[in-house]
Model the fold of this input.
Amino acid sequence: MILLENVSKSFKNGVHALRDVNLYIEEGEFVYIIGPTGSGKSTLIKLLDGELIPSSGRVVVAGTDVGKLRHSKVPLYRRNIGVVFQDFRLLPELTVFENIAFALQVIGLDKVTIRRRVREILELVSLEDKAKSFPRELSGGQQQRATIGRAIANSPRVLIADEPTGNLDPEKSQEIMELLEKINQEENTTILMVTHDSNLVDMNKKRTIALEEGYIVADIQKGGYIHHD
Amino acid sequence: MIKFFRLLPYHTKSAIQGLVRHSATAFSAISAVTMTLILMAMFMLLTGNISSFTRNIESDFRIHVSIDAVQGEDDIAKLQEQVESIPGVKSVEFSSKDQELAKLKEENSEIFGMYEEGDANPMRDVFIIETAAPEDIEPVTATLNATEGINKAEYGGDGVSVMVELFKAIRNGGFVFVGALSLLAVFLISNTIKMTIYARSTEIAIMRNVGATNGFIRVPFIIEGLVIGFIGAVLPCLLTYFGYSYLYGILNGQFLSNMLIMQEVYPFALQICYVLSGCGVFVGMLGSFMAVSKYLRWKR
Done:
């Protein structure tokens, strides 16, 4: 489902964010990406999302060579993947309902289908009572769930979550975790979750990939957080 | 295409939402359109009238040719053909001496009442000649004066032609100015709209994030530009129409003298209104298009 071949990414200012990364993730897998700040996690997500183009190597997601996409085709590719951003990126002038509906409107679904699907999603992420609220009226956890709802609205095959529990308390984090697991199991969505929440990773053990200074330093199937000394 | 029309209500709705939610920035864009269009309207009224003045004066440019009294009807017909063949002559109109006397009486009332038609008529048969261009008047007059059977050919004089040249220069200058102003308007408005859209560059990036194509993102913004341009054109149009009607009314349709006849309110002011609203709408859409396209490239 996700394939990275000898991927390197360096920036104009001389920073090497990723170095010769090789990675393969099966369909339906749930994978953690862990690593300290500046280890290249965000760059990895931006490469998968099509926001960045690799300096060398190939990034293939669901059969698409992401780095080779034309600017105008990037949005079309993104319809196959859902991204949960760390900074939420909800449209501030739209309500929660409209925000989720927007992701469906852009792919040209009809009103009735959209309304039905958005209701389903709101129920899934437990935001039924916040449908008419604007993002600024929501708490961090609620905004996070709204973003997850938007990301999964059009049933993407891959869901990429960038620190989805980053600014939540442990209890809320566990809720989000359970939500993602539910999506992974029920819709067979491949999930890639970037985190540095060691408790979460230890509690819900899954394949864990550790990045450090742009290199993959560990890829453990049985999971568990790798602690640095 | 079908999809475009199916989505049009949605796009229109989000355009109006955008306008309402960003009403302050929309207002500044509308004012920019309004100001520029008012300037444009003023110059269009000016140049339009000057070109009307010129046309009127030019049409007064006729050569008055009196024919030798001895000429018979056949000779006059021949002479007319001859005159018509002179290069630069646009039309030749014959007016008999009786018609000339009648015209004189009409213009000057009783004073000429003592003259009778027929043999006691002191007038001569005349040709009224119009030339294709004002420049032709002098050479044509010279040729006519040298032609046999013609008593005298006369025209208004050099002063008038100097004035016409001056008006033409002002009119051409005015057209250039209106052209330059339109360019400036596009620039100004696209800049203002760019500022209003800048506030929403994050919004555009997010739209791309969730899979909205560039075309899909553009449409509501372009509709917004259209609405901004149209609203911006309303005030200039009203000012043009009612302002010009008022001016036309108090000046009685003439500017300073009866030689300078103003363009009539209908259809002139109305035509300017069409041009203004067309310009507003076009410039608004173009400005929006340019601005969104810029921010579409902001992030991949």
Remarks:
- Chain B touches chain A at residues 3, 6-7, 10, 17-18, 21, 202-203, 205-214, 216, 297, 299-300 (CB under 8 Å).
